[in-house]
Amino acid sequence: MTGSYRVGIIGSGGMGGSHARHWTQKTHTEVVAVADVNERSARKLAGEFGAKSYTDYEHMLESEACDIVSVTTWQNVRAEITVTAAESGVVGILGEKPMASSLGEADRMLEACAEHGVKLAIGHQRRFTPQNVEARRLVLEGAIGTPTAMLRRDAHGLLNRGTHELDEMMYVLGDPRPIWVIGQVTRKTDRWERRVRCEDRCAAIIAFEGGIRGTYESDLPEPGLQGDVIYGTEGILKRGPEGSLLLLNRHSSDWQSIQPPPVEADQYDEFISWLDGRIDAHRNEGGTARLTMELMMAIYESARIRDAVELPLRTGDNPLDIMVEEGTLPVEIHGRYDIRAPFPEQSN
């Protein structure tokens, strides 16, 4: 350990509280400041940890000499905050998922951090769950032969829960390189998620190197896809009850139940080790999170151009926004609503 790290939290909602508690539990980090546009919320969270509160995050960055900043705001402002934090002299930034609300924003975040020598990671914490860590180990060790397909199913929007599902898919498969994406979305209602436009329904196929196919769907009608399975040339691996894994392969005539061992470090431990120079990379570093963002934007872009999208994606703006604003994805059921943070008119 090279010393203690002063931590600032930008965004005092539920995830801000979660980050603050985790940083406080670590031996070498101290939460010294909390910033939020809601003064009451900032004061409340800061008071829990003996920290100072601010309503202006730039003022906090100027005043507190933070080493680490957790950016736990809504995704529509994460890019500008991350860029400002990188320019302020911090050494590390831990953001929340999704990384941003467009690929162009994600690139600006990475460029600013690279320019100022700041380490950036994004909170796809499922890469630290025992079930996923063990599943990745089994896949990479050939327990099901060469992986051929992985299925994931969820609800409540691509940029909401889908970001976890796609990142988890890549992690368990060993982070293969995606080659192309084909997808479809519908948006007949004026649906939003934390003030970013959200689709009603979504489905996609992702082609990875080696011929692996990833299938993802969200909010589709029943009957549903069994979205927890990985197929290989020599077996099948899927989630079991109570955090276990179920494996069927050529070495056994029946399903084997595997209880994953505990994972000793979480994303905060690994972030500190990364800052200290004890490890070369964080499994959630910004470049990896950018790839998850690229896949989500490629699904939207595929729906926009009505064709498969070869990666890398060239469109920096959010293609869902483009379709809505150009009128090619018109709202049929009027009345905007946010599924996570209601608009003022939703409570009337």
Describe this structure in words.
By secondary structure, the chain is an alpha/beta fold. The protein has two domains: 5-125 and 266-282, NAD(P)-binding Rossmann-like Domain (Rossmann fold), CATH 3.40.50; 127-262 and 292-338, Dihydrodipicolinate Reductase, domain 2 (2-Layer Sandwich). 34% of the residues lie in helices and 26% in strands. The chain has ten helices and 18 strands. A nine-stranded mixed sheet has the order 16-15-14-13-7-12-11-8-17. Strands 3-2-1-4-5-6 form a six-stranded parallel sheet, with helices on both faces. α4 packs parallel to α5 (103-116) and α9 (286-305) runs parallel beside α10 (319-326). The radius of gyration is 21 Å and the shape is globular.
| Principal-axis shape | globular
Largest beta-sheet characterization: 9 strands, mixed
Give me the CATH fold name of the largest domain. Dihydrodipicolinate Reductase, domain 2
Radius of gyration equals: 21 Å
Q: What is the name of the CATH superfamily of the largest domain?
A: Dihydrodipicolinate Reductase, domain 2
Using DSSP, what is the number of strands? Answer: 18
CATH top level of the largest domain is Alpha Beta
Distance between the termini: 53 Å
Per CATH, the architecture of the largest domain is: 2-Layer Sandwich
Largest sheet strand order = 16-15-14-13-7-12-11-8-17
The number of distinct helices, counting runs of at least 4 residues, comes to 10
Give me a quick take on this structure.
This protein has 348 residues and is of the alpha/beta class. The protein has helices at residues 14-25, 39-48, 57-64, 78-87, 103-116, 130-140, 158-172, 267-276, 286-305, 319-326; strands spanning 5-10, 29-35, 52-54, 68-71, 92-95, 119-122, 147-154, 178-186, 189-193, 196-197, 201-208, 213-218, 228-232, 235-239, 245-249, 256-258, 309-310, 333-338. The strands form 3 sheets. A 9-stranded mixed sheet has the order 16-15-14-13-7-12-11-8-17. It has a 6-stranded parallel sheet with strand order 3-2-1-4-5-6, sandwiched between helices.
